[in-house]
């Protein structure tokens, strides 16, 4: 049998190789760039992305993956289910409504304009905006944006495949805003709109539509599983051929269902969902297209083409039509290696970003078609990484091997530590604090940029950061906060900064990946054994503590978050890498304590995000993650208070693991959901101290004292007030001082009001 082999991608990064979208968005929001100018930048970016795909020789370019802010938000508009609470006027432009839902309704007319909740996209560091559903939610085809993009791509002469979120995943991603109702009940109202969209795409001549249903890679409740067959039976006749796509984990028990649905093709994640492949080869009917996500869309290492070729051979032998693709959308990797001029040649040779991954697909396609392709250079690079001495540091392994079990446990239980900490810190009831970062002002960022370019000396840069810290301390003292922070001005990012100072990591110049909206991060490359050659934060913490008699919290990023927000090595078990990171950061914890910093926060906002989508893998992950955190924290005396912080995630299903961290104080994001999570912590009997966030840090809106008093009063009915702290949801780096100062003043006033009531 001759197999037809094609190549495609599930999606491409949207921000542009030089973050063009970020700058266009932010200047539009500042009022410096019109909507038309923003749309023009977006059009250029789409055209450039399609041109890359065409140039690489892909058989389709993908349309519908671009988004001005978030693809789930795009679907909210496409499907006409903007929450009624925004009370948009009929004549309000689509784009203004779009940004009002994303960022809060600065301009909104009388409606309740708080931004949509934001949460993690499956187990990634990308955040999507959460659709809101009630029994009254209706749907209609309400935006022509997608169709305009199809025409745009057509005019440019491309062969097109369109991508949409599948209807079940779209509902699943949302949140019910009414009691006694399941959003799955809305499927009957939603499907006709999908039908209309598919019909319109068909009229535009679109042959293939990829419907993303990544919930197939999760454990589905029976009702959700049962909803797939009738839903896809409805869509089957709508027009274009459908490629159902699952990614991020094995479909496992959902694999047979996916193979049997009435669609024309199935995309399988050939990296994280590789375990599905043998069964899918057996179960997927012969006439259907199989798309194998053979190139890793979640990591940046060059593909081992020999291994990939070997894994694809059985599929070639058994399929009539085989498509090759990255495992998932390339949204999660940087755009291109082309701009990386400072990475050393050896490391560079080990990497493939989005653009390079397109070429890998083509190479594999040609080889599978029987062309004689020489990839000996690629093979050499893969082998070089495996054998490179810079990856392996014997002393790191030796230190791990010598670790005793006791290293992971604090000397005394929390109750004993708590007494020692109270005696030492003498904090009031409901102590106030912040999560660590203060505004990263343009001046701070520019100073860092100038220092990096060599235009500012090391001494001048230090002095600038020290002045920034002094300012932050003065502001906090004036506001009357109880536990101060230095404000993290010296950090470009809470992960990248540490990566710059640890062995085993490299950082990129332009390896940006979208985190949410216009905000991006540059995940470091964790390629080798990790150690901490010299103290990292000590100087800044000492400087800050020297300026005040109030306690200053030391501020560190924990091992799990360092792992989760980096591109990590694939040649060691996760548990081992976590322990390496934990030991390196433990050295920092101990140095801070020795320097008299007796409150130390070890941030773990990515702990929940790292939870495997598949239940079978969860216990091992949680055991490794909690062990790493405890190892990092446990070297300090009873009187030293360890804090941790988590945000933008569902904590309810990992509460036992959070308790097992045994941090003395946990601060969490809680305000957007009205303290829902405090109830969960209370019900789980959370034994230590808790700081539920009382205001949203993503909104420019200054929170009112009364609102925070209300939230705190409510929290105090759920959780023992003597174990409650008062803090914002997360760090304040994205805000301005003009917003932060009144917000914190109101927060301190709220804490004092409640102290008086309770005291
Ligand atoms: C807490 N969060 C984080 C996540 N992941 C991380 N890796 N880090 C996080 O903090 N995931 C969950 C959440 C996501 N939240 C955010 C919040 C804010 C940002 C953000 O603000 N990102 C910045 C980039 C930050 C950075 O690295 N800055 C560098 C370089 C800045 C820069 O662009 N410099 C200019 C020159 C300076 C100038 O003129 O302004 C340049 O290079 O051109 C730095 O400070 O040095 C963003 O802008 O998107 C991300 C995730
Ligand atoms: N300390 C960090 C935590 C963010 S999750 C900050 O305040 O930005
Ligand atoms: Zn946070």
Automatic annotation (TrEMBL):
GO BP field: methylation
Binding site residues for L-homocysteine: 435-437, 488, 603
Gene3D superfamilies in alphabetical order: 3.20.20.210
Cofactor(s) demanded: Zn(2+)
Protein name, per record: 5-methyltetrahydropteroyltriglutamate--homocysteine methyltransferase
Domain Cobalamin-independent methionine synthase MetE C-terminal/archaeal: 430-752
Note describing how the cofactor binds: Binds 1 zinc ion per subunit.
Pfam families recorded: Meth_synt_1, Meth_synt_2
GO MF annotation: an example: 5-methyltetrahydropteroyltriglutamate-homocysteine S-methyltransferase activity
Domain Cobalamin-independent methionine synthase MetE N-terminal: start-end pairs: 7-315
Reactions catalysed according to its record: 5-methyltetrahydropteroyltri-L-glutamate + L-homocysteine = tetrahydropteroyltri-L-glutamate + L-methionine
Family: Belongs to the vitamin-B12 independent methionine synthase family.
Residues given in the record as L-methionine binding sites: 435-437, 488, 603
Matching NCBIfam families: met_syn_B12ind, PRK05222.1
Pathway as given in its UniProt record: Amino-acid biosynthesis; L-methionine biosynthesis via de novo pathway; L-methionine from L-homocysteine (MetE route): step 1/1
Top enzyme category: transferase
Binding site for 5-methyltetrahydropteroyltri-L-glutamate: 19-22, 120, 519-520, 565, 609
Active-site residues from the entry: 698 (proton donor)
Record's function text: Catalyzes the transfer of a methyl group from 5-methyltetrahydrofolate to homocysteine resulting in methionine formation.
InterPro entries associated with the record: Cbl-indep_Met_Synth_N, Cobalamin-indep_Met_synthase, Met_Synth_C/arc, UROD/MetE-like_sf
Record-listed E.C. numbers: 2.1.1.14
Residues given in the record as Zn(2+) binding sites: 645, 647, 669, 730
Keyword line: Amino-acid biosynthesis, Metal-binding, Methionine biosynthesis, Methyltransferase, Repeat, Transferase, Zinc
């Amino acid at each position: 049998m001759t197999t037809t082999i094609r190549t495609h991608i599930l999606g491409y990064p949207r921000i542009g190789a030089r973050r063009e979208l970020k700058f266009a968005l932010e200047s539009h929001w500042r009022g410096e760039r019109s909507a038309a100018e923003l749309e023009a930048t977006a059009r250029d970016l789409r055209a450039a992305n399609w041109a890359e795909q065409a140039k690489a020789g892909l058989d389709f370019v993908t349309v519908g993956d671009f988004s001005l802010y978030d693809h789930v938000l795009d679907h909210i508009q496409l499907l006409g289910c903007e929450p009624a609470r925004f009370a948009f006027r009929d004549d309000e432009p689509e784009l203004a409504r779009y940004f009002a839902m994303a960022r809060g309704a600065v301009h909104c007319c009388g409606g309740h304009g708080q931004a949509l909740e934001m949460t993690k996209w499956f187990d990634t560091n990308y955040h999507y905006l959460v659709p809101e559903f009630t029994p009254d939610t209706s749907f209609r085809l309400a935006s022509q944006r997608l169709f305009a993009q199809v025409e745009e791509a057509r005019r440019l002469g491309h062969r097109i495949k369109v991508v949409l979120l599948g209807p079940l995943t779209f509902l699943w991603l949302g949140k019910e805003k009414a009691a006694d109702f399941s959003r799955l009940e809305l499927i009957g109202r939603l499907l006709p709109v999908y039908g209309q969209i598919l019909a319109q795409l068909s009229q535009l001549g679109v042959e293939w539509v990829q419907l993303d249903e990544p919930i197939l890679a999760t454990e589905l409740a029976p009702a959700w599983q049962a909803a797939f067959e009738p839903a896809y039976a409805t869509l089957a006749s709508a027009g274009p051929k459908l490629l159902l796509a699952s990614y991020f984990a094995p479909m496992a028990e959902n694999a047979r269902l996916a193979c049997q649905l009435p669609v024309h093709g199935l995309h399988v994640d050939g990296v994280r969902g590789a375990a599905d492949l043998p069964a899918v080869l057996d179960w997927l009917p012969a006439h259907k297209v199989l798309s194998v996500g053979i190139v890793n869309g979640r990591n940046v290492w060059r593909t081992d083409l020999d291994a990939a070729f070997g894994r694809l051979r059985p599929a070639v032998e058994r399929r009539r039509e085989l498509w090759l693709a990255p495992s998932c959308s390339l949204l999660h990797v940087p755009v291109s290696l082309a701009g990386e001029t400072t990475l050393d040649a050896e490391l560079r040779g080990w990497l493939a970003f989005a653009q390079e991954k397109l070429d890998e697909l083509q190479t594999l396609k040609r080889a599978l078609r029987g062309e004689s392709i020489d990839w000996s250079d690629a093979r050499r690079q893969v082998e070089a990484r495996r054998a490179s001495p810079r990856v392996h540091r014997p002393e790191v392994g030796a230190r791990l091997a010598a670790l005793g079990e006791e290293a992971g446990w604090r000397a005394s239980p929390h109750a004993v530590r708590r007494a020692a900490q109270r005696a030492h810190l003498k904090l009031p009831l409901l102590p106030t604090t912040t999560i660590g970062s203060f505004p990263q002002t343009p001046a701070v960022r520019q100073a860092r940029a100038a220092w990096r370019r060599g235009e500012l000396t090391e001494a001048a840069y230090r002095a600038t950061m020290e002045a920034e810290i002094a300012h932050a301390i003065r502001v906090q003292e004036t506001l009357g906060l109880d536990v101060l922070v230095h404000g993290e001005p010296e950090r470009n990012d809470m992960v990248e900064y540490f990566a710059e100072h640890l062995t085993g990591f490299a950082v990129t110049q332009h390896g940006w990946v979208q985190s949410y909206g216009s905000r991006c991060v540059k995940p470091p490359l964790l390629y080798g054994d990790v150690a901490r050659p010299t103290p990292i934060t000590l100087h800044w913490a000492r400087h800050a503590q020297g300026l005040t008699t109030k306690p200053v919290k030391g501020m560190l990023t924990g091992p799990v978050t360092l792992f989760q927000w980096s591109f990590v090595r694939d040649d060691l078990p996760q548990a081992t890498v976590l322990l390496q990171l934990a030991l390196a950061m433990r050295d920092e914890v101990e140095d801070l304590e020795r320097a008299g910093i007796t409150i130390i926060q070890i941030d773990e906002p990515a702990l929940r995000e790292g939870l495997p989508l598949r239940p079978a893998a969860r216990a091992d992950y949680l055991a490794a993650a909690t062990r790493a955190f405890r190892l990092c924290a446990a070297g300090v005396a009873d009187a030293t208070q360890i804090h941790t912080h988590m945000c933008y995630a569902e904590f309810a299903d990992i509460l036992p693991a959070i308790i097992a961290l045994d941090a003395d104080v946990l601060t969490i994001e809680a305000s957007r959901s009205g303290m829902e999570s405090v109830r969960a912590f209370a019900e789980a009997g959370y034994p230590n101290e808790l700081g539920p966030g009382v205001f949203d840090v993503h909104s420019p809106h200054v929170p009112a004292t009364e609102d925070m008093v209300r939230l705190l009063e409510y929290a105090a009915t759920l959780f023992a007030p003597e174990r409650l702290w008062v803090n914002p949801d997360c760090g304040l780096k994205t805000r301005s001082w003009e917003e932060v100062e009144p917000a914190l003043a109101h927060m301190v006033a709220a804490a004092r009001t409640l102290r008086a009531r309770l005291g």
